Amino acid sequence: SQTIVDCFWRAAKRLGVDVETGVSVCKIEVQDGKFTLHSRAGQCYSADFLLLATGGNPTGHHLAQNLGHDLVAAVPSLFT
User: Whose CA is closest to 55, among 77, 30, 40, 29?
Assistant: First the structure.
């Protein structure tokens, strides 16, 4: 919901977190505890921490699985 999105935006701003939008990530690598994100446009981003919010996007699910996460199958919900 928008309330949750607003909460994350406020917290990120308060903590000085850099937020990039409109970037399509195609690959994530982890080396020495740091993340390197590769965009479809050829850009690379480096991060100490990563919040991966995929929603129902299959590409995001593949990125999470490639990082070693197990995913639970989605189920219908009353909320978006």
Answer: 77
pLDDT tens track, the chain, 80 positions: 789 889 999 999 999 998 888 889 999 999 999 999 999 999 999 999 988 887 778 888 999 999 999 988 878 877 66
First and final CA of the chain: distance in angstroms? 7
CA 77 to chain centre: 22
Question: Counting every residue, how long is the chain?
Answer: 80
Closest among 66, 56, 55, 72 to 26, alpha carbons compared: 66
